[in-house]
Amino acid sequence: MSMRKEGRPTLTSSAISISSSVAFIITPWTILEQMLLPLATTQGPHWRTRKSSSRSTLRDQMGCSETDLKSEIVSQDALRRTIFPLGELTKDFVRKIAAENRLHHVLQKKESMGICFIGKRNFEHFILQYLQPRPGKFISIEDNTVLGTHKGWFLYTMGQRAKISGLREPWYVVEKDGIKGDVLVAPRVDHPALYRDLLRTNRVHWIAEEPPAALVRDKMMECHFRFRHQMALVPCVLTLNQDGTVWVTAVKAVRGLALGQFAVFYKGDECLGSGKILRLGPSAYTLQKGKNRTRVTPEVSSDSPGLHPTP
Question: What is the DSSP letter of 109?
Fold first, then answer.
């Protein structure tokens, strides 16, 4: 157990970051109890203490842990009772331990890249076992042309390629209308309708503080965020609202933001917490159309009411 000068207890997230391949298959305590491990495997998580006895999580060595997308909603009470026996080990190092101890069934198991409880089953078929089909239309966001039909808007997520019968060119989901049942699509994987730089979350769950002192003091704070496992961290500015929600303004527009996802916030290597995305700002395509419209009729504003960060 090692101490850090900052004085705040933290735990590394790399221990759970290997969960997709090994950690949940090999019981960590079993490994530690039954075999002699290299010295490196005995490294425990780094802890830091302070008067409040709160804990936060750190990103793992590789900087791409799915743990952050799970631990950011864990309560302080749970974190104080949590131990990560695998410390700061990488997946490759744990596989090496497994190989040295002839745990070949673990080594041969492929990593889960999809929804683990569905497995190799077709996602659409699986979902339609539980939800009634709600047929709708694929509509081009550029000219409102009907391109095809689908069995339910809930089968698609923002940014994914839409399977439209009869079309060779790829089209991508940019918006969904849950009332009409329509799915709006755009050509090209980099279409501006896929990019946004503004979102609002629900009340944020902060891991170590409620909320960070700098954010309380200044009402704004620079940090980073991500909303998908292994995506690169995105520089952003948080604006704190009175109800505990935050506006997140990305320095650069990001692709595929979707309602219901969790925006997870970081300061350096520390995972601060997260908030569920409840509202999205206009896409780059919408803003571009608004600017073009303004050039023709200056009296029409391109601003979208209620979509500007205000405390």
Answer: S
Q: What is the number of other CB atoms lying within 10 angstroms of the CB of residue 19?
A: 17
**Whether pLDDT at 33 is above 70:** no
Per-residue model confidence as pLDDT tens digits over 254-305: 999 999 999 999 998 888 999 999 999 999 999 988 876 655 444 433 333 3
Q: Which pair of tokens denotes residue 8?
A: 């705040």
Per the CB < 8 A criterion, the answer to whether 154 and 127 are in contact is yes
Q: Which two tokens stand for residue 100?
A: 């040295």
Q: How far is CA 259 from CA 22, 201, 248, 263, 275, in A?
A: 31, 9, 13, 10, 11
Backbone phi, psi, residue 195, to 5°: -115, 135
Q: Which residue's entry shows tokens 């050509």?
A: 187
Residue 265, strand partner residues: 225, 273
Mean pLDDT of 61-80: 58
Position 303 scores a pLDDT of 36
Measured distance between the N- and C-terminal CA atoms of the chain, rounded to whole angstroms: 41
Question: Is residue 183 classed as helix, strand or coil in its secondary structure?
Answer: strand
In 3D space, the residue among 131, 124, 140 whose CA is nearest the CA of residue 182 turns out to be 140
Which tokens in the block code for residue 137?
């239309």
Is 0.85 topped by the overall pTM? no
* Rg for the chain, CA atoms, rounded: 23
